[in-house]
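Hey team,

Sharing the OmpA family protein run so nobody has to redo it. Sequence (340 residues) first:
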Amino acid sequence: MTHVRLRPALLTLVLGALALGCAHAPEEARPTGDDDGDGILNADDACPNTRGASATRGCPPKDTDGDGVDDSVDKCVRLAGPASREGCPVRDVDGDGVEDARDTCPRVPGVLERQGCPIEDLDRDGLEGEADKCPEEAGPASRDGCPEKDADSDGVPDADDACPEQEGLPALRGCPERDSDGDSVPDQRDNCPREPGAVDNQGCSPKQKQLVAIRQDKLELRERILFDSNTAKLLPSSLPVLDNVARVLLSHPEHTPVTVEGHTDNRGDAEASRALSLSRAEAVRDYLVQQGLPPERLDARGYGPDRPVASNDTSMGREANRRVELMLPTHAPRVKNPGR
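Structure output:
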């Protein structure tokens, strides 16, 4: 009976001792190591042997496509792209340097200035699209992008070429040199193109001494045209050279118009000199008309002292400046069958 009573008391003592022992036992220490030295304890480090950031639980950033944008924020983890596009690449299907999002013609290479669309100028003549009537041949805007045709490749466009199928000279309106009378003097320099003559007499018979030579831009006068002092009255000594001029121009109708220019030296009033030079040019023109030249082929102009050919400081220079010249047109109009 006594033993039965002692059992509960003994159990109570044992449990009390156990409780007291547990209260004084120290807690188990948490690990404090940081093997990778990234500032994150091993216990909290998902990658304890590799340095990383706290944002990734101690693991290094992952950048699968190597574009510098972490996979955690990269919208295109397998395609490299800038951070400004969240790691996705710039799409440029036509490879013209203009991204598709801004390319008006995303499948056709173009230029930035045209929002990625091409310049429609295949011949690169400055005209595009419908404005260019000859899109595969370069030509000026004045001809709607079409080139000047030159079938014989002589440098004279067919529209201005009197002989478009024969290579010729620009001075002859695209026609080749001819010698109609066979005297070895080309027609364009022959004072008598229809009669054989001497080479040293401008292609004319020695019986007719030539006082005129045809040059590229003018008639060269071998004798001066003279006037009474301070007047527009021709001196008789000037008539033979003017008669020669008339015969040459009548033999060369392609030279139209011919400009008769009057010039003076610089002495006296300039305006009076211009008026006198014009009167003298008109006197020469009128004389040539009397010899059979159509008036519309001749144009008279007076320049006074404005176009000297020599110094006015000497008497010889002033004499050279007092002159009448007969200038030929730079480009003679087309004539049919020139030289015939």
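Residues 213-327 form a domain with the 60s Ribosomal Protein L30; Chain: A; fold (CATH 3.30.1330.60).

Ping me if you want the raw files.
A.
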